[in-house]
Amino acid sequence: MTSSSVSSSSNVFYPKACGTCKSGYMSLIEVRAMGLINRRRYWYVVDDSSPYLYWYKDPDSLKCVGRVALVCMALTYDPRETGRFHLL
Predict the structure, then answer these.
(1) What domains are there in the chain, each with its CATH number?
(2) Which residues are within 8 A (CB) of 56 and not within 5 positions of it... i.e. 6 or more apart?
(3) Which of 3, 29, 37, 46 is the most exposed place for a label (fewest CB within 10 A)?
(4) Which SUPFAM superfamilies match (predicted)?
(5) How far apart are CA 33 and CA 42, in angstroms?
């Protein structure tokens, strides 16, 4: 992989494909009003040099859709739900 990054107008750097990161597709599942379930597939990136988990529309996107700080995030899972976990 090559190392590159993209900056936005607020000078925040968003990691893309790099040698020290983990990346891949995951689905974001949201439970909406009246029990409606919304599932969106995003490309997620965690970089060793950044304290955030970033997500993009696809691996080729230059601008991230969102990010969350890893220091204030908790991960929980239910062993009965294979392949699913919750980020709090």
Answers:
(1) 5-87 (2.30.29)
(2) 42, 43, 44, 45, 63, 64, 65
(3) 37
(4) PH domain-like
(5) 22
